[in-house]
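Researcher: Please translate sequence to C-alpha cells.
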Amino acid sequence: MTAATDTGALLELVWAAPLAALIVTISWGLVVWGSTRAADSRREGRTGQATLHVAVAALGAALFAAAVVYGLLIMTAKD
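Model: Translation complete:
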C-alpha cells in the first residue's frame, strides 16, 4: 500500500510552523519584558514609564491569547 503525500500541506507546514512559533515566543517575551520593566519602573517611582510597560505587556498578552485561540481553531477545524 502506498501513501499519498500532500506536498501542498507539507509546504504550508514548512512556513506556518516556524511563523507560529516565532509569534508565540515574541508575544510571550513581550509579556515577560513588559511586566518586569513595569515592576522596576514602579519601584523607582516612574509611574508614566511603568504604565507604558504595562501596555506593552498587555499587548503581548493579547497577541499570545489570540495566537493560542487561532491555533486551537485551526486544530479543531474540520475540512
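Researcher: Any highlights?
Model: The chain has a mean pLDDT of 92.
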